[in-house]
Design goal:
Elements (H helix, E strand, L loop, with lengths): L4 E5 L3 E7 L2 E9 L3 H14 L5 E8 L5 E5 L9 H10 L5 E8 L6 H19 L2 E5 L1 E9 L3 H11 L2 E6 L3 E9 L3 H8 L6 E7 L1
Antiparallel strand pairs: 1-7, 2-3, 3-6, 4-5, 4-6, 8-10, 8-11, 9-10
């Protein structure tokens, strides 16, 4: 079975790198989808509207296969790739790193830019907290009220989370647990007469 954990940043953090008058302000966010990324990028451009460049890289998914880089007018490969390189170096995913550059009047050359964007991204990641996230499966349960005790016993034994409970003649509940426990927990749940489950999401 595939690993059900990955490394990501716990919260927003910032970093800074200066070179020949230019300031490279780096920012890292935990993100879960491209809509969220688009929203953050819009806010950064608005907040740092006077910056010369807004370069970034992001990566999504536990398998680290979904990513993008943007040089935003800097020479090709001099900004986005070095930022992505730090995402890979720290082995994190579900992250967005933006580095905004306030130009100081002196050109740095391609090698200087690569070093600056890499160092800025590294600074933001070092200033943040990297945490291990357990991937959770979410299932919606539907079962007779007579089975409440059996369901609650399994939830307690498996240390599963629960939400959106509705107890009537037929009960509904959303439960969540580590993906690696899926086969075992569903097998136990399937023994309860009249219980139906539907997979809703994996986060």
């Amino acid at each position: 079975m595939e690993p059900d954990t990955y490394l990501t940043v716990k919260a927003f953090s910032e970093g800074l790198y200066k070179e020949k008058g230019s300031r490279f302000i780096s920012m890292v966010w935990p993100v879960t989808n491209q809509e969220e990324i688009k929203s953050v990028l819009g806010k950064v451009r608005k907040e740092h509207h006077s910056a010369r460049h807004h370069c970034y890289a992001w990566m999504l998914g536990q398998n680290r296969e979904n990513f993008r880089v943007n040089d935003d007018g800097e020479p090709s490969g001099s900004a986005g790739k070095p930022i992505l390189g730090q995402i890979n170096a720290f082995q994190v995913t579900n992250v967005l790193i933006v580095v905004v550059r306030y130009f100081g009047g002196k050109l740095l050359g391609v090698s200087g830019l690569i070093n600056a964007y890499r160092s800025a991204a590294e600074s933001a990641l070092k200033n943040g907290e990297i945490t291990e996230h357990c991937i959770q499966d979410y299932f919606e349960l539907d079962f007779p009220y007579s089975c409440v005790n059996d369901v609650m016993k399994i939830i307690k034994e498996e240390d599963a989370g629960q939400s959106q409970q509705k107890f009537e003649l037929r009960c509904q509940m959303t439960i969540n647990f580590r993906t690696s426990s899926r086969e075992r927990i569903l097998k136990v749940l399937s023994r309860i007469e009249g219980l139906k489950y539907t997979h809703t999401s994996t986060i």
